[in-house]
Design a protein that fits this description.
Strands 29, 31, 32, 35, 38, 41, 42 and 44 form an 8-stranded antiparallel sheet that branches. Strands 30, 33, 34, 36, 37 and 43 form a 6-stranded antiparallel sheet that branches. The chain is mainly β and 641 residues long. The structure holds calcium ion (3 copies).
Length: 641
């Protein structure tokens, strides 16, 4: 039987509503200016950012550092500019063979080889401020190793130590506490020059250099804290690259058959050659990651020479495309994708450090950014954008509870009580709504359940990157019951928003659901415990060119109830490229300057946007944690308020 804590932390003070969203929706509708709405959202971001919380694991601390002065829209960049590389603030030290991962909008780089020895230095890069900051050093020096993030922690795998002894250590870095957990189990075969990736609760260590060259694939299950073997990589290989996209791990390149690529399917435990086209040229020791839905490889050794070349593989067409060349040719570097400024404003890929020649490390920080996913900027392209395509606002206030708004639907995959997601204007958890009177709500029964809330389809066209903001009030049995956000892309199966490539800017998952007692979300990161009233959750939606359906999913286990989960004041906004100067007076042309101007004004406390939209200036109250008894299990007939 499961052992449960009897006391659940409950945060008692609700955040204070600052903007009347419903009133503003009416304004938006009457004026018909989406861009004005976007301006309000920027003001909302700016005013919400100073929020602090005493809880320790609700979201990444970087979520609040986005400066309001960042201009989200690139200045007059024509859409023909598919992507470009620029040097950003240099890495603090010259290094190669470092391990890089991103989490919560920051890029983290660990260790590496400097002066021909492995080092322990580690740094965090914040794209919003273009600055590197020192973080806690590795527990011991490491080089030629790999990092992967599960959205909560960064896992560091193997590599060589200061004596070039090969290790199999698994360390877990916690960005919130800036500490390392060194008590996780090591994997079996010590390696360096391996590849690593995170997918669906598991970390993969793929091949690498060992005593000889290794072909094993070891899988760390985060929930069970155990390693197991997956199907072997098709041949022994090292200095190869990997990335997770969708439901698969992709790996390829390396020192052996350097043009070969493979797709690993965890469901079948099979490495598939044909599922991913082989590389146009042999490549090894490159930076690798998922970017804008594709597998990006940057630099490395191409045909055995240090290269500036960058390529991307598109799963939709199973083809590799040449990207613009990097600024500097580097190998034995590493990279990761992170938000440029804040969720929804697009992402960049960062290729950090690397060698300019054998044994010659550098401190480059090369940023690849695609400002426009469509390479053909015909003059008619801009006017044909339909502004409503990537726009969703829902405050759940224009219906009578328990009715859902049009386009929204609820279903229980495991239904012990017949209670579906529904609108609600009273009851627990309190407050009942962020924008009164209604929020959407689901109960947390004391038995196994799996309850879905589906959004209407949202089309994010090729010229946009999208972000989701919603208000999130959950009181779910801590670590045993929880909620997740999932997405279906173009009618495909639902997957966790993080697995699909989304990122939380703030208010992300705060725990892992226990595997003990039948919760359908067992082992997954989720919202669990109590948010202490409504918090803000921001999610980037890097699904340009796709139609998505969002799913809020509550899963509960076999005993122990909670008050439930509320979602309110939900908005999806999109970044649009600045039109070319030749574009005539379409609404977009006049609208864009408003968008770019708003962040600047909102940087000051007396922002006009804030003043217009906010009738009250009550400062947000920092919640104070206090212990309260776990809510008593309620009869199933009672939960609907
Ligand atoms: Ca292949
Ligand atoms: Ca509402
Ligand atoms: Ca439970």
């Amino acid at each position: 039987m499961k052992k449960k804590r009897t006391v659940q932390l409950r945060l008692g003070v609700a955040s204070t509503r600052r903007i009347s969203v419903s009133a503003f929706l009416n304004l938006c509708v009457s004026i018909g200016l989406i861009t004005f709405f976007v301006g309000l959202l920027l003001a909302t971001f700016a005013t919400a950012n100073p929020q602090t919380s005493s809880r320790t694991r609700t979201r990444n601390p970087d979520a609040r550092v986005y400066p309001a002065g960042i201009t989200p829209t690139p200045t007059a960049t024509p859409c023909a500019s598919v992507g470009s590389w620029t040097e950003q603030s240099p890495y603090p030290i010259a290094v190669s063979g470092n391990a890089v991962a991103s989490q919560g909008g920051s890029v983290y780089s660990f260790g590496g080889i400097a002066n021909n020895v492995a080092i322990g230095n580690a740094y965090k890069y914040s794209p919003a401020t273009n600055t590197w900051t020192l973080i806690a050093s590795l527990p011991a020096p490491r080089g030629w190793f790999s990092a992967a993030s599960d959205g909560t922690y960064i896992y560091l795998l193997g590599g060589v130590d200061q004596n070039f002894n090969t290790t199999a250590t698994l360390w877990r870095y916690d960005p919130v506490s800036n500490t390392y957990n060194t008590s996780l189990p090591s994997y079996t075969i010590p390696t360096y020059f391996h590849a690593a990736a995170y997918l669906n609760g598991k970390i993969y260590r793929i091949a690498g250099r060992a005593i000889g060259t290794d072909f094993h694939v070891e899988v760390y299950n985060i929930a069970t804290n155990t390693w197991s073997m997956a199907a072997n990589y098709p041949f022994a290989n090292h200095s190869l690259m990997a990335a997770a996209l969708g439901s698969y791990i992709y790996a390829g390149g390396g020192n052996a058959s350097p043009d070969k690529t493979w797709r690993y399917d965890p469901a079948t435990d099979i490495w598939d050659d044909a599922a991913v086209a082989d590389l146009p040229a042999g490549r090894s020791a490159a930076a690798s990651g998922a970017y804008n839905g594709r597998w990006l490889l940057a630099g490395g050794d191409v045909n055995f020479a240090i290269s500036t070349s960058a390529i991307a593989w598109d799963p939709a067409t199973n083809t590799w495309t040449n990207l613009p060349n990097m600024v500097q040719a580097r190998d034995y570097l590493a990279g990761a994708t992170a938000d440029r400024s804040r969720p929804g404003w697009g992402q960049s890929f960062y290729a950090v450090a690397g060698n300019s020649a054998p044994g010659t490390p550098t401190n480059d920080n090369q940023q690849y950014t695609e400002t426009c996913a469509t390479p053909t900027p015909t003059p008619t392209a801009t006017p044909t954008i339909t502004p409503v395509a990537c726009f969703l606002f829902e405050n759940f206030d224009n219906v009578t509870p328990p009715t859902l708004p049009p386009g929204w639907s609820a279903i229980n995959a495991i239904d012990p009580d017949g209670i579906l997601w529904q609108t609600s204007n009273s009851g627990n958890p309190t407050p009942p709504a962020y924008s009164p009177p209604n929020a959407v709500w689901i109960n947390n029964p004391d038995t196994i359940s799996d309850k879905y809330l589906h959004s209407p389809p949202i089309t994010i066209d090729d010229l946009e990157s999208a972000g989701l903001i919603f208000r999130n009030n959950y009181a779910l049995e801590n670590t045993f019951d929880g909620g997740v956000l999932e997405v279906s892309i173009d009618g495909g199966p639902f997957q966790d928003i993080l697995a699909a490539g989304g990122f939380f800017g703030q208010g992300g998952y705060n725990g892992t659901i226990s595997v003990c007692c039948g919760n359908p979300l067992a082992g997954r990161n989720a919202w669990t415990g109590s948010s202490g009233g409504f918090i803000e959750t921001d999610v980037s939606l890097p699904f340009s060119g796709h139609t998505i359906v969002l799913r809020w999913r509550m899963g509960s286990d076999s005993s122990g109830a909670g008050q439930g989960w509320r979602v309110d004041s939900l908005m999806i906004i999109c970044e649009r490229p600045t039109p070319t100067p030749s574009a005539t007076s379409t609404p977009m042309v006049t609208a864009t300057p408003t968008v770019t101007a708003t962040p600047t004004t909102s940087a000051t406390p007396t922002s006009t946007a804030t003043a217009t939209a906010t009738p009250t200036t009550t400062p947000r109250i920092t919640p104070t944690p206090r212990a309260a008894p776990t809510p008593r299990p309620r009869p199933t007939s009672a939960p609907r308020p």
